[in-house]
Amino acid sequence: MRLSSLGTANRTARAAETHPLTWRLRDDGQPVWLDEYQSKQGYDAARKALTQMSPDEIVGTVKDAGLKGRGGAGFPTGVKWGLMPKDESLNLRYLLCNADEMEPNTYKDRLLMEQLPHLLIEGMIISAKALKAYRGYIFLRGEYVDAAANLRRAVIEAKAAGLLGKNILGSGFDFELFVHTGAGRYICGEETALINSLEGRRANPRAKPPFPAVSGVWGKPTCVNNVETLCNVPAIVGNGVTWYQGLALAGSEDHGTKLMGFSGKVKNPGLWELPFGITARELFEEYAGGMRDGYRLKAWQPGGAGTGFLLPEHLDAQMYTAGIGKVGTRMGTGLAMAVDDSINMVSLLRNMEEFFARESCGWCTPCRDGLPWSVKLLRAIELGEGQSGDIETLERLCRQLGPGKTFCAHAPGAVEPLGSAIKYFRSEFEAGIKGTGDNRKAIKGVQPNLLDQRW
């Protein structure tokens, strides 16, 4: 089964079965407000969940469907929900929506929040019933001004219609929902840093255990899910496990569909809802249209700046968690970036590592000191002033900042693209080392910035 791209004109009942996330989108790009959303089966799944299903039945349905987190980690959602305590006396529970979408080259959640705000709200209502949570927060990236306005309007509409608040749909279930805009920190994408920020604290990750399911926001049981993850829940509850598992293509171990995209100098950059298991080549060539005339694909990242670089020969990999894992990196957010042959990889990595160094919370030493160190070395190599051993030092930093070596996943994600770039494009790094006979004085267009003042 092939799924068409976003913006297809004639979305029918069949489209509702194949495009659970996007079939309600308007062709003019305007938000789908409550009346139109309800005319397109909106809140039908919430009504079913609240009046016909127990919390355990909802959790079991999501677990059996095989829904995995769509924020990048890919942890099974039903399993995460099952970690919440069973003790009925713990009646103060929270559901947090992680909408702090600050991963460079990622914009999927923005589309859903700006154009389908009620889909997210419906997903949170069902999820809150499953978790027995009485209050929810959408922790939104502060720069998403339009998304914040649309979500707040949708919350007001839902509350006026009896879909939020006390005794929703006469079911006896109460759920309040609030939109909270953050101050703009990448680290808030880490769930415990998000919780600290929501509480008004510095956005540092917390030690785990205890996990948020035991002690989260204000010390109460808390579940944190990504926007796209929550938006999958209504269709799973409404259409069932068998239907959801049948959406993915043969060979995929992940179920359902995924918002995937391609940016860079491609002919048709964009975002599409596609089945897990589609090849990166089909995404790149048939949907993104391949490279623009005059450009050649040099490398690509499968899912945001925190994923490793791959080569054109890796395009036959299937887009699902293990499929991308087979070629040496992670699927991440599923929004790929094409790097064309005019780009110097040293300059690209220097730019990336500056971002990651700036966004480090500074809580642990490897991340706080290691990322600025990588920037210093990369800038020297970029200017043709690298020293013998600098590349080996960068490789050592990639190991020392890897998984399990730091307090959270920020640094491992930051060095993954660096390590892969050295692996595949080592000669470009070597060209910036003094005494190699091939180094340049400077790469054209390099400009000093504030980081230079630290060294």
TrEMBL record:
Pfam families to which the protein is assigned, alphabetical: Complex1_51K, NADH_4Fe-4S
Documented EC number(s): 7.1.1.-
Record flagged with keyword Metal-binding: yes
Uppermost EC category: translocase
Substrates-to-products reaction catalysed: a quinone + NADH + 5 H(+)(in) = a quinol + NAD(+) + 4 H(+)(out)
Alphabetized GO MF terms: 4 iron, 4 sulfur cluster binding; FMN binding; metal ion binding; NAD binding; NADH dehydrogenase (ubiquinone) activity; oxidoreductase activity; quinone binding
InterPro entries: NADH-UbQ_OxRdtase_51kDa_CS (IPR001949), NADH-UbQ_OxRdtase_suF (IPR011537), Nuo51_FMN-bd (IPR011538), Nuo51_FMN-bd_sf (IPR037225), Nuop51_4Fe4S-bd (IPR019575), Nuop51_4Fe4S-bd_sf (IPR037207)
Keywords: 4Fe-4S, Flavoprotein, FMN, Iron, Iron-sulfur, Metal-binding, NAD, Oxidoreductase, Quinone, Translocase
Keyword RNA-binding: no
Requisite cofactors: [4Fe-4S] cluster; FMN
Domain of life the protein comes from: Bacteria
Domain NADH-ubiquinone oxidoreductase 51kDa subunit iron-sulphur binding: 346-391
NCBIfam families: nuoF_fam, PRK11278.1, PRK13596.1
Quaternary context: Composed of 13 different subunits. Subunits NuoCD, E, F, and G constitute the peripheral sector of the complex.
Cited function: NDH-1 shuttles electrons from NADH, via FMN and iron-sulfur (Fe-S) centers, to quinones in the respiratory chain.
Protein family according to the UniProt entry: Belongs to the complex I 51 kDa subunit family.
Protein name: NADH-quinone oxidoreductase subunit F
Organism: Aeromonas simiae
Gene: nuoF
